[in-house]
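Reviewers asked in the last cycle whether our approach scales beyond single polypeptides. To address this, we selected a multi-component target totalling 348 residues and predicted its structure end to end. The input consisted of the following lines:
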Amino acid sequence: MKFAIALFSAPHAPSSRRALRFAQAALAGGHEIVRLFFYQEGVHSASSNVVTPQDELDISGEWRDFVREQRLDGVVCIAAALRRGVLNAEESQRYDRPAANLDDPWALSGLGQLHEAAQVADRLVCFGGP
Amino acid sequence: MRKSLLIISRQAPWSGPGAREALDIALAGGAFDLPIGMLFLDDGVFQLTAAQQPKTLQQKDLSANLQALPMFGVESLYASARSLQERGLAENPLTLAAEPLDDAALAALIDRYDQVITL
Amino acid sequence: MATLHVLSHSPFSDSRLSSCLRLLGANDGLLLSGDAVYALQPGSAQLRALEMMPDSIGLFALDEDLTARGISAAQRAQVVDYPGFVELSCRFDKVNSWL
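The resulting structure, written as structure tokens, was:
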């Protein structure tokens, strides 16, 4: 089956980890993930500036590694991200901000990407809240 | 066949960007000519009440943005009759032509759509 | 088109479970994850409400969330792991997560 997975929560929310474990299980089960789309607080789960204490789980780091290794299409909603201070180099320059905190493998794009993924996928599965 | 998507909006209008971001999903879908429905459930029905003055909170007027739904082709608009009733809004005029549905009709509504996002 | 409803809020401090129970279709399923597994707490009104659901409605709970909280699943509930969660999302026609 083709899955579109949407995440609405920050990396410290249990639902961010749950989404990641679900996505990993989907691939392990032979399914396909057509796109990951991060919206609302989910944009923080893609931030490269999260520093987790060494003895704690680094979920945004795990997301980054997962998307890279599996060569997934990881899209972060640009409007939601700008509002929450998650910027890539291009946006941080455009808005004259001192730093960028979104990097490869993530792409900033619009809500159309969520709809397109939902159209292509057999299942849209959303994660968020606690 | 394009898949239909029902957005269930449960957030009160001034509790953060949640209600606006749910609306944005609906408007974006409408802009792509997708079959989108929107259901106001639980505190989401507070988005539909008249005489809101968000300027006092220095917020943009969500009610005005909700009016854009039909213009974006999103005309399947519903509200939970129970949520309205529970909040004393059953007899009040709503700012959007959302059809009140009872619980059984809501279950049938959700059943009809290909995909659902509840925010 | 049967729906798998997914909950993750505690039913003791949040209205999602009660809203969801009122909108369930006859062949829908309910998956409890995160704090929503507290709905299986023995002796609670929430568990009684779940046990009153028709048999046609599947009740599922995520194993790691039960174990982490020291809750044993009631007989009515079927315990699933992540591969089981993925399988459920394929078995049902759509997934509605109550975010």
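Chain B has a mean pLDDT of 95. We regard this as preliminary and will revisit it once experimental data from Aim 1 are available.
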